[in-house]
Amino acid sequence: MAIMTNLKKGDRVKVDFINNPETIHAGIQFTGYGVLDRVEDGRVFGRLDDGQTFMCFESDVEVRQHKYDWSVIPDHVAYMATDADGVACGWLVEPKIMGDAWRNQSHLSAFFYILSRENYKNHFRGDWKYSLEKRPEEQSPEEQSQ
After folding, report:
1. What is the pLDDT of residues 19-43, one digit of tens each?
2. Cut 0.85: pTM above it
3. What is the total count of domains within the chain?
4. How many Å apart are CA 75 and CA 42, to the nearest integer?
């Protein structure tokens, strides 16, 4: 995987590395999806979706392009965000964090729901405070192949 210098806290990543032989997890293969908690001096620290913490080099992670599988989300939904209770909600307007959930003063209700127990493909499972994502703009076939 290529070295990423623009990694930041909250990024959803795929990790794939064998742990350093000088640690308590010597030789263990870490593979999966997770969220970064810290980026420092060429190393990243984070948590896999199953709760396992990890530390590796920036080159051992790959940023996932999108937090949600937009192909199954209704076209009118402009934003997706996951609340602290694990429910992913779709919004017509950008929500903000209010308490332990995403809300918008002018639109108090979300318009599309995905429960984490539904095993939704590509469902965001990291820290809910970093779950907000705006619907990606469509790309031309030329842009997609790059």
Report:
1. 776 666 667 888 888 889 999 999 9
2. no
3. 2
4. 39
Q: Which segment of 2-6, 8-12, 55-59 scores lowest on mean pLDDT?
A: 2-6
Helix (H) or strand (E) holding 144: helix 141-144
Residue 126: domain span: 70-134
In this predicted structure, the answer to whether residue 93 has a pLDDT above a threshold of 70 is: yes
What is the model's pLDDT at position 139? 46
- Is there a contact between 19 and 28 (Cβ–Cβ < 8 Å)? yes
Asked if residue 93 belongs to a domain, the reply is yes
Question: Smallest Cα–Cα separation from 115: which of 97, 90, 141?
Answer: 90
CB contact set of 139 (below 8 Å; sequence gap of 6+)? none
10 Å CB burial of residue 88 (0-12, 13-18, 19+) is buried
| Residue 128, token pair as written in the block | 């809910």
